[in-house]
Amino acid sequence: MNVGELLAQTVPMARTLNLEFLETTSERAVVRLPDQPDFHNHVGGPHAGAMFTLAESASGAIVLAAFGDQLSRAVPLAVKAEIGYKKLAKGVVTATATLGRPASEVVAELDAGGRPEFPVTIAIQREDEAVTGEMTVVWTLRPHATA
């Protein structure tokens, strides 16, 4: 099972919005939100909450792809998120997430006993490739408690 399938299976909100995980690697994650009238806002585009969930899901996909091998010793958690809506979104929108720090640095900090934080940046685009929103999610790898 790939990361996108895992998220679609384990995150009910991703299933509710019918998110499509197009690419999930440790370098980038691409997730699409189909155009669905049930999730439209007052101007006929995707609701802001749906776009937030789309972008956050893309960030979670890249985090799992980059740090899935660390799950036995740490849990990834979103610490904070900031989103800016730049242009009117209509139709299908796609979120592309990238890590803001090299994964090797994050793992080295975890190896040294720290609780690393790292940003994931996400661009939300319409089908014409216009950027309609930008989001940054700061994630952490919280080490499991030891007995």
TrEMBL record:
Transmembrane segments: none
Protein name, UniProt field: DUF4442 domain-containing protein
Lineage of source species: Bacteria, Bacillati, Actinomycetota, Actinomycetes, Kitasatosporales
